[in-house]
Design goal:
The protein has 496 residues and is α+β, with helices and mostly antiparallel strands. A 5-stranded mixed β-sheet has the order 13-15-11-10-17. A 4-stranded antiparallel β-sheet has the order 5-3-8-9, with no helix packed on it. Helix 1 packs antiparallel against helix 2. The longest helix has 21 residues. The radius of gyration is 36 Å and the shape is elongated. It starts with 29 loop residues before the first helix and ends with a helix.
């Protein structure tokens, strides 16, 4: 139990320590009682032995002085000053809540790095060593003790409670937690176990960490099949999910999930404890950049292990789950990624099936690349004009036409707004190349080095790819990499 074998404070506002008393219930100091006893004995013996009266008096005086000196030298047991207030909040920390193993699973329980706040009365100064926290759902405190000194009005000490997700109570239960402290320093130091008020926000952060942690630990997409649309980068996915844990789970479309595909239809999939469940979702790939390899033949979907959040599906597992995740708002603050619903690990065969389906939805093409040769970027500061001569390289023999659309909302459009809107359709040559000339205005007299600005805005690339009797339309994002022309970058950086 908390506080066993160590002094406790029943409240943070405990009174300060005092010199230790011994013996009688009236609280008479030990030194006074020893002196009185010796004096009474001396008087009795003086009546019977007058010759030793003087010696006894001297002895009594010496013992009294010694006892008083010992009492004065005895240190007080240090406590927190009266009126000290403790607070506990999750974060801040850039550290992950847990480390994953090579299979994408948690390698250990979550660690919710937290801040213990100490608000001390004015003009108080007492050293503190925060050694940990105990309470329901806390296994231990990980990391070295945090040292603090109540020399200011408020201070903060970082602690690292390791969560026991199976024993963590709900926030509504108002669980009690205690902070273990060493108060004082050197020989004058006392161990204290102090209750700390825990706001619902800290418990909810701990609960949410456990919901996401369980989902990553317990859920697996064990089987997957897909039907690919013949004219676009859309596909329908059927998946079976296994829940190996003792808590219910929910796999559903989530705004926090990213990156390859967006879910167009298909609702949440409840997965009971220790059971399998199957669902169907319609997916759309806004661009094929992250699916296709480069012209050099890089491997597609370079995610190992593959997680369901790559196709817009994420999960939580535990008690009190929401009905769906579309409007789910995780607790604000630190650990944003691991407090969000997390992607589920795909088994090897399911991952291979999804990878192949995504490749087919993107026509099996390599991503287009915009090539800029040295000297191909022309800068006319007098006319405020930037002109880029480039070549768009696409998969040879597979693309019928190319169209470009400028992105006026791109960050770089503030410094270099495009003077073109659409280009094409253009037909690649036999090598898969399309020559381009792209023009931009220079809105600033001192654009400076491009790396310190938004850069030249990107653009959308639309490819039409024949597949039998149909034409598949695919989208990619083009990037104007001015740094491919060193002379242009040098001139920008040298502009006064």
């Amino acid at each position: 139990m908390d506080g066993v074998g160590e002094p406790e404070l029943e409240g943070v506002s405990a009174t300060s320590g005092s010199a230790e008393t011994i013996g009688a219930d009236d609280g008479e100091p030990a030194s006074a009682r020893v002196t009185t006893w010796l004096r009474d004995r001396a008087r009795d013996r003086a009546r019977r032995h007058p010759l030793v009266t003087a010696a006894a008096g001297i002895l009594v005086a010496a013992l009294a002085v010694t006892a008083s000196a010992l009492a004065l030298r005895q240190p007080e047991s240090p406590v927190l000053p009266p009126g000290t207030v403790l607070t506990l909040d999750a974060g801040p920390s850039d550290d992950p809540l847990w480390i994953t193993d090579g299979q994408g699973r948690p390698a250990g329980p979550p660690v919710l790095t937290s801040t213990l706040g100490v608000i001390a009365p004015a003009r108080t100064r007492i050293p503190l060593v925060v050694t940990g926290i105990s309470g329901p759902g806390v296994l231990r405190d990980q990391g070295p003790p945090a040292t603090a000194v109540t020399g200011a009005t408020r201070l903060a000490a970082e602690i690292h409670p390791v969560l026991d997700c199976d024993r963590l109570p709900p926030a509504s239960a108002a669980p009690a937690y205690r902070v273990r402290l060493l108060v004082g320093s050197g020989a004058v130091q006392a161990a204290r176990s102090v209750p700390v008020p825990v706001a619902g926000g800290w418990v909810e952060s701990a609960q949410q960490a456990c919901r996401a942690w369980r989902a990553r630990r317990d859920l697996t997409v064990t089987a997957l099949s897909a039907r690919v649309d013949p004219v676009s980068s859309r596909l329908v996915v059927d998946a079976t999910v296994r829940n190996a844990g003792a808590e219910q789970a929910l796999l559903a479309p989530a705004p926090s999930a990213c990156c390859l595909a967006a879910v167009e239809s298909g609702g949440p999939l409840p997965v009971p404890a220790r059971s399998d469940a199957s669902g169907r979702w319609s997916l759309w790939l806004p661009t094929c950049d992250t699916v296709s390899g480069s012209v050099g033949g890089a491997a597609p979907v370079a995610v190992d292990p593959l997680l369901s959040d790559q196709i817009g599906l994420a999960a939580l597992a535990g008690p009190a789950l929401p009905a769906d995740l579309t409007a789910y708002t995780p607790p604000s603050g630190p650990f944003v990624e691991q407090l969000n619903p997390l992607g589920v690990v795909l088994a090897r065969d399911a991952a291979a099936a999804l990878t192949e389906a995504l490749r087919r939805a993107c026509g099996g093409l390599s991503s287009p690349v915009l090539l800029i040769s040295p000297g191909s970027v022309r800068i006319d500061l007098a006319a405020h004009r930037l002109t880029v001569d480039a070549v768009l390289d696409v998969s040879p023999g597979l693309v019928r036409s190319v169209r470009l659309t400028s992105e006026v909302d791109d960050a770089g459009a503030q410094d270099f707004p495009p003077i073109w809107t659409r280009v094409g359709p253009l037909t690649p040559d036999r090598s898969g190349q399309v020559p381009l000339r792209l023009g931009y205005r220079i809105t600033s007299r001192m654009p400076g080095c491009l790396e310190y600005h938004g850069g030249v805005p990107g653009f959308d690339i639309t490819l039409e790819v024949p597949e039998g009797a149909t034409i598949r339309t695919l989208h990619y994002r083009g990037v104007v990499a001015i740094e491919q022309d060193p002379s242009a970058v040098a001139r920008f950086c040298a502009t006064p």
